Amino acid sequence: MIFSFFPDTCLFKGIAPHDIKTLMDYFDSEEKEYKKGDIIFRAGTATPKIGIIEKGTANVVINHPWGTSSVFGQLKDGDVFGGAYDTISASRLVCDTVAAENCKVMFFDMNKMLTITDNSPKDHIVVMRNLVQIASETCLGLAERMIHTAPNSLRHRIMSYLADLAMKNDSNKFKVPFGRQQMADYLNVNRVAMCGELSKMQKDGLIKFHKFDFEIFFGNR
User: Fold this and answer.
1) Could you read off the pLDDT of 94-116 as tens digits, one per residue?
2) Do β-strands 173-175 and 213-216 pair in parallel, antiparallel, or remain unpaired?
3) Which segments in the chain show pLDDT lower than 70?
4) pTM for the whole thing?
5) Pairing status of strand 173-175 against strand 58-63
6) Which domains are seen in the chain, by residue range?
7) Are 103 and 43 in contact (CB under 8 A)?
8) Residue-by-residue DSSP string for 19-86
9) Which of 124, 95, 90 is nearest to 109 (CA)?
C-alpha cells in the first residue's frame, strides 16, 4: 500500500495524513490486486464493501439480456465505487465492475463508514460528508451522460460529449478517457458508425483527432 496516495483522494479530503491511518484501520481496510479482465464486483450480488481505485482503471459494465455488454463508465485512480448499493436494503448490483488493466483496490466496510458510535475516530463525520459529495458528483455524472445520449443524431451526441470534455479541460485540445469501443458504449452508439462519423467530422473541419488526442473547433458547423 502506498499510504501517501490516500490524503489526495476525495474520500479522505480534509483529513490529516496521520489521522487517515486510524480511519482506515477502523473501517477494516483491505487491499486487493486484480488482473486485466478480473471481475471486482459482480452484477446480481450484494456488497457490504466500498472500493477505491488505488492504481489502474476499471470499467462499469452492463450485461444485456441478449448476450452483449457495454461500458457504462470508467473508474480511475482515486475513484470510489460500490457504496451506494449497501445503503439500500436488499439492493443488488446491476453492473459488473471489471478491471480494465491490472489494478489495485482498497476496500472498506461500508456499514462502519455509515455508522457513527462513541468509539468512532474524530474525523469519521468528515468521511461521511465526503461520501455525500462523492454521491452528488456521481449523480451529476449520470445526468451528463443522459444529456450526451439524448440527441437522436449521432453527430450531435459526439459533439455534446467532446464539447463537454473541452469545457472540463478549459481547452479545445484534450484527451478522451475512452478507447473507441468504450466511447461508443458510453454514448450508446455503434462503434463502426461512430468511427465513420468522427472521420466525416474531421473532414468537415469540426474536429481533428489522433487516437486519444482531440481538438474541437467551435466556430465551424
Assistant:
1) 788 999 999 999 999 988 998 99
2) antiparallel
3) 1-3, 83-92, 219-221
4) 0.69
5) unpaired
6) 3-147 (2.60.120.10), 150-216 (1.10.10.10)
7) no
8) HHHHHHHHTT-EEEEE-TT-EEE-TT---SEEEEEEES-EEEEEEPTTS-EEEEEEE-TT-EESHHHH
9) 124
